[in-house]
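Sequence and structure are kept together here, with a separate record for every protein. A complete record is shown below as an example:
=====
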Amino acid sequence: TNNSSKSVADYIKKLEKLGIKAEYDEFITSSQATTYYLKNHHPNARLYVCGTASLKEELIGEGFTVTENIDEVDCIVMGNDTELTFKKLHDISFMLCTRELPYIATNPDYVCPTEFGSVPDCGSVCDMLYNATGKRPVFIGKPEALMPELAMERTGCKKSETAVIGDRIYTDIKSGINAGTVSILVMSGETTYDILEASEDKPDMVLESGAEILEALKK
Protein backbone atom coordinates (compact mmCIF):
# COMPACT_ATOMS: atom_id res chain seq x y z
CA THR A 1 0.00 0.00 0.00
CA ASN A 2 1.05 3.60 -0.66
CA ASN A 3 -0.94 4.76 2.37
CA SER A 4 1.58 5.81 5.02
CA SER A 5 -0.96 7.04 7.57
CA LYS A 6 -1.03 3.65 9.29
CA SER A 7 1.84 1.44 10.41
CA VAL A 8 2.12 -2.25 9.58
CA ALA A 9 0.97 -3.01 13.13
CA ASP A 10 -2.18 -0.99 12.45
CA TYR A 11 -2.83 -2.88 9.21
CA ILE A 12 -2.41 -6.22 10.97
CA LYS A 13 -5.04 -5.15 13.52
CA LYS A 14 -7.36 -3.98 10.72
CA LEU A 15 -7.14 -7.34 8.95
CA GLU A 16 -7.68 -9.19 12.23
CA LYS A 17 -11.01 -7.35 12.58
CA LEU A 18 -11.91 -8.66 9.11
CA GLY A 19 -11.05 -12.22 10.18
CA ILE A 20 -7.76 -12.34 8.21
CA LYS A 21 -4.60 -13.42 9.98
CA ALA A 22 -1.53 -11.54 8.74
CA GLU A 23 2.16 -11.33 9.60
CA TYR A 24 4.49 -8.33 9.49
CA ASP A 25 6.55 -9.74 6.61
CA GLU A 26 3.45 -10.02 4.41
CA PHE A 27 3.23 -6.22 4.04
CA ILE A 28 5.06 -3.76 1.85
CA THR A 29 4.15 -0.15 2.63
CA SER A 30 5.40 3.21 1.41
CA SER A 31 6.53 3.98 4.97
CA GLN A 32 8.70 0.82 4.95
CA ALA A 33 10.12 1.80 1.57
CA THR A 34 10.77 5.32 2.87
CA THR A 35 12.61 3.89 5.87
CA TYR A 36 14.71 1.75 3.51
CA TYR A 37 15.53 4.82 1.39
CA LEU A 38 16.41 6.95 4.43
CA LYS A 39 18.70 4.28 5.86
CA ASN A 40 20.56 4.10 2.55
CA HIS A 41 20.73 7.85 1.79
CA HIS A 42 20.28 9.73 5.09
CA PRO A 43 21.06 7.16 7.82
CA ASN A 44 21.62 9.54 10.75
CA ALA A 45 19.24 12.32 9.73
CA ARG A 46 17.00 14.07 12.24
CA LEU A 47 13.57 14.11 10.66
CA TYR A 48 10.75 16.61 10.56
CA VAL A 49 7.75 14.40 9.78
CA CYS A 50 4.56 15.80 8.30
CA GLY A 51 2.65 12.61 9.00
CA THR A 52 0.58 10.75 11.53
CA ALA A 53 1.71 9.67 14.99
CA SER A 54 1.71 6.14 13.56
CA LEU A 55 4.27 7.08 10.86
CA LYS A 56 6.44 8.89 13.40
CA GLU A 57 6.41 5.87 15.73
CA GLU A 58 7.40 3.61 12.85
CA LEU A 59 10.37 5.82 11.94
CA ILE A 60 11.43 6.12 15.59
CA GLY A 61 11.18 2.34 15.89
CA GLU A 62 13.66 2.06 13.00
CA GLY A 63 16.18 4.19 14.89
CA PHE A 64 15.49 7.66 13.51
CA THR A 65 15.20 10.83 15.57
CA VAL A 66 11.98 12.76 14.91
CA THR A 67 11.98 16.41 15.96
CA GLU A 68 9.64 19.41 15.71
CA ASN A 69 12.54 21.83 16.34
CA ILE A 70 13.10 23.20 12.84
CA ASP A 71 16.64 24.30 13.73
CA GLU A 72 17.62 20.66 14.32
CA VAL A 73 16.10 19.17 11.17
CA ASP A 74 18.32 17.36 8.63
CA CYS A 75 15.56 15.97 6.41
CA ILE A 76 11.84 16.58 5.78
CA VAL A 77 9.52 13.57 5.42
CA MET A 78 6.01 13.98 4.03
CA GLY A 79 3.36 11.30 4.46
CA ASN A 80 -0.38 10.87 4.08
CA ASP A 81 -1.07 13.10 7.06
CA THR A 82 -4.59 12.69 8.39
CA GLU A 83 -3.47 14.87 11.33
CA LEU A 84 -2.32 17.78 9.13
CA THR A 85 -2.16 21.26 10.69
CA PHE A 86 -1.31 24.67 9.28
CA LYS A 87 1.68 24.79 11.64
CA LYS A 88 3.21 21.82 9.83
CA LEU A 89 2.66 23.51 6.47
CA HIS A 90 4.18 26.73 7.83
CA ASP A 91 7.21 24.92 9.28
CA ILE A 92 7.90 23.02 6.06
CA SER A 93 7.43 26.12 3.91
CA PHE A 94 9.87 28.03 6.11
CA MET A 95 12.49 25.27 5.92
CA LEU A 96 12.14 24.79 2.16
CA CYS A 97 12.35 28.54 1.52
CA THR A 98 15.32 29.20 3.79
CA ARG A 99 17.45 26.03 3.62
CA GLU A 100 18.55 23.29 1.23
CA LEU A 101 17.26 20.15 2.93
CA PRO A 102 16.55 16.64 1.63
CA TYR A 103 12.79 16.53 1.06
CA ILE A 104 11.22 13.05 0.90
CA ALA A 105 7.58 12.05 0.36
CA THR A 106 6.16 8.59 0.98
CA ASN A 107 3.74 8.63 -1.97
CA PRO A 108 2.42 10.84 -4.78
CA ASP A 109 -1.28 9.86 -4.57
CA TYR A 110 -3.54 12.88 -5.04
CA VAL A 111 -6.55 11.43 -3.23
CA CYS A 112 -7.37 8.78 -0.65
CA PRO A 113 -10.72 6.97 -0.95
CA THR A 114 -13.36 7.21 1.76
CA GLU A 115 -16.91 5.92 2.16
CA PHE A 116 -18.23 9.19 0.67
CA GLY A 117 -15.68 9.81 -2.09
CA SER A 118 -12.11 11.06 -1.66
CA VAL A 119 -9.97 13.32 0.52
CA PRO A 120 -6.59 14.91 -0.34
CA ASP A 121 -3.58 12.58 -0.05
CA CYS A 122 0.15 13.24 0.16
CA GLY A 123 0.56 14.25 -3.50
CA SER A 124 -2.05 17.00 -3.20
CA VAL A 125 -0.37 18.46 -0.10
CA CYS A 126 3.01 18.32 -1.87
CA ASP A 127 1.48 20.25 -4.80
CA MET A 128 0.22 22.86 -2.37
CA LEU A 129 3.72 23.20 -0.87
CA TYR A 130 5.20 23.42 -4.38
CA ASN A 131 2.91 26.37 -5.11
CA ALA A 132 4.28 28.07 -1.99
CA THR A 133 7.97 27.12 -2.20
CA GLY A 134 8.79 25.94 -5.74
CA LYS A 135 10.24 22.73 -4.25
CA ARG A 136 9.28 19.15 -5.16
CA PRO A 137 10.06 16.12 -2.97
CA VAL A 138 11.67 12.84 -3.92
CA PHE A 139 8.73 10.39 -4.03
CA ILE A 140 9.43 6.90 -2.69
CA GLY A 141 6.25 4.82 -3.07
CA LYS A 142 4.47 3.74 -6.24
CA PRO A 143 4.96 4.56 -9.15
CA GLU A 144 8.63 4.15 -8.29
CA ALA A 145 10.00 0.61 -8.60
CA LEU A 146 11.29 0.29 -5.03
CA MET A 147 8.23 -1.32 -3.42
CA PRO A 148 7.92 -4.19 -5.96
CA GLU A 149 11.70 -4.59 -5.81
CA LEU A 150 11.58 -4.94 -2.01
CA ALA A 151 8.78 -7.51 -2.34
CA MET A 152 10.81 -9.54 -4.85
CA GLU A 153 13.92 -9.31 -2.68
CA ARG A 154 11.98 -10.50 0.36
CA THR A 155 10.27 -13.43 -1.39
CA GLY A 156 12.96 -14.43 -3.87
CA CYS A 157 10.50 -14.17 -6.76
CA LYS A 158 11.52 -13.22 -10.29
CA LYS A 159 9.97 -10.32 -12.20
CA SER A 160 8.06 -12.79 -14.38
CA GLU A 161 6.57 -14.34 -11.21
CA THR A 162 5.47 -11.01 -9.72
CA ALA A 163 2.37 -8.91 -10.36
CA VAL A 164 1.51 -5.43 -9.13
CA ILE A 165 -2.26 -5.20 -8.72
CA GLY A 166 -4.13 -1.95 -8.19
CA ASP A 167 -6.85 0.47 -9.25
CA ARG A 168 -4.63 3.42 -10.23
CA ILE A 169 -2.65 3.64 -13.43
CA TYR A 170 -0.40 6.51 -12.34
CA THR A 171 0.77 4.71 -9.17
CA ASP A 172 0.04 0.96 -9.19
CA ILE A 173 0.34 0.09 -12.88
CA LYS A 174 3.21 2.50 -13.47
CA SER A 175 5.08 0.92 -10.54
CA GLY A 176 4.75 -2.52 -12.11
CA ILE A 177 5.94 -1.16 -15.45
CA ASN A 178 8.92 0.57 -13.82
CA ALA A 179 9.83 -2.60 -11.92
CA GLY A 180 9.46 -4.83 -14.98
CA THR A 181 6.75 -7.02 -13.43
CA VAL A 182 3.28 -8.01 -14.65
CA SER A 183 0.71 -5.28 -13.98
CA ILE A 184 -2.99 -5.92 -13.31
CA LEU A 185 -5.55 -3.11 -13.25
CA VAL A 186 -8.80 -3.63 -11.33
CA MET A 187 -11.70 -1.39 -12.35
CA SER A 188 -13.31 -1.33 -8.90
CA GLY A 189 -11.61 1.88 -7.78
CA GLU A 190 -10.39 5.19 -9.16
CA THR A 191 -9.73 4.32 -12.82
CA THR A 192 -12.51 4.52 -15.40
CA TYR A 193 -12.40 3.07 -18.92
CA ASP A 194 -12.03 6.60 -20.31
CA ILE A 195 -8.94 7.12 -18.14
CA LEU A 196 -7.58 3.74 -19.22
CA GLU A 197 -8.09 4.50 -22.91
CA ALA A 198 -6.41 7.91 -22.60
CA SER A 199 -3.41 6.65 -20.63
CA GLU A 200 -0.06 5.98 -22.30
CA ASP A 201 0.66 3.36 -19.62
CA LYS A 202 -1.25 0.15 -20.25
CA PRO A 203 -1.61 -2.78 -17.83
CA ASP A 204 -0.93 -6.36 -18.86
CA MET A 205 -4.39 -7.37 -17.65
CA VAL A 206 -7.65 -5.58 -16.85
CA LEU A 207 -10.16 -7.09 -14.40
CA GLU A 208 -13.46 -5.76 -13.12
CA SER A 209 -12.44 -6.39 -9.50
CA GLY A 210 -10.05 -8.27 -7.25
CA ALA A 211 -12.61 -11.07 -7.08
CA GLU A 212 -11.53 -12.13 -10.59
CA ILE A 213 -7.82 -12.49 -9.79
CA LEU A 214 -7.88 -16.15 -8.72
CA GLU A 215 -9.83 -17.20 -11.82
CA ALA A 216 -7.46 -15.20 -14.01
CA LEU A 217 -4.45 -16.93 -12.45
CA LYS A 218 -5.97 -20.36 -13.10
CA LYS A 219 -6.12 -19.52 -16.80
Observations:
- Strands lie at 46-50, 65-66, 75-78, 103-105, 111-113, 118-120, 138-139, 163-166, 182-186, 205-207.
